[in-house]
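User: Before I run my own analysis I want an independent prediction to cross-check against. Here's the chain; please return only the structure tokens and, at the end, one sentence I can use as a sanity check.
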Amino acid sequence: SNHPEFNTIDRSKLIGKKITDFFDADFSATLLALRNQVRATGIPQEIEFKSPNENRWFHVKYSPIVDTHQHRSKNISARISEITKRKHAELALRESENKFRLLAENLPGIIYLCRNDARYSMLYLNHNVEQITGYTADDFVQGVISFTELFHPEDKERILSAVDEALKQRTSFHLEYRMSDKAGNWHWVEEHGIGVYQDDALILIEGYLSDITPRKTAEQQLRIVAEENERILNNSLTLNCVAGYDGYFK
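Assistant: Structure tokens:
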């Protein structure tokens, strides 16, 4: 055995002892419960645990022993395997995923990961999508709704064309367009996206989408004011002009 508790013990001295003789009372009780369950049901049982003395992980599996006629005997087998490398990799991946989700859920806009199909089928969105669209992230992931169904009819062809061209060129895309929410209200959104490639194949699209309706509304109001000022200036019966302090007409 490679178990640290067994490393200094000769194999011959293990014969006649119980595996629970090498663990504390709490973990020994867990192992006994697994063993008894195997004896009662004939179904293999397993557990993963961390060594209390070292930063090492192990996998324990109890299995019933059957004879050549598939009759279950009273004996069971126990197998202990070290899984430290695998467990550390799993824990590192889980920590990385937790950091990503923490970042994604606290950004003000929508982070998404989708397929490059006709509906841009979503694989992941943060929960901010509900604030803008009125639909939950699950609605998009389960295919209840898609972004393509929310595009403004006047913007849809331009959006699809720009995304397709960027993917062909393997460049990022930057778009501003109108999108409807669940209640039928129109929002202006800004989207940054890029393709995800594996070898030469496009596999996914990832991006970030934010609501820019307040900015667009302000721009529209400024444009109206500017057009009104120009109309007044050009249609007045009097002479209107703009000049600098040096006396030259601008």
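Sanity check: The mean pLDDT is 84.
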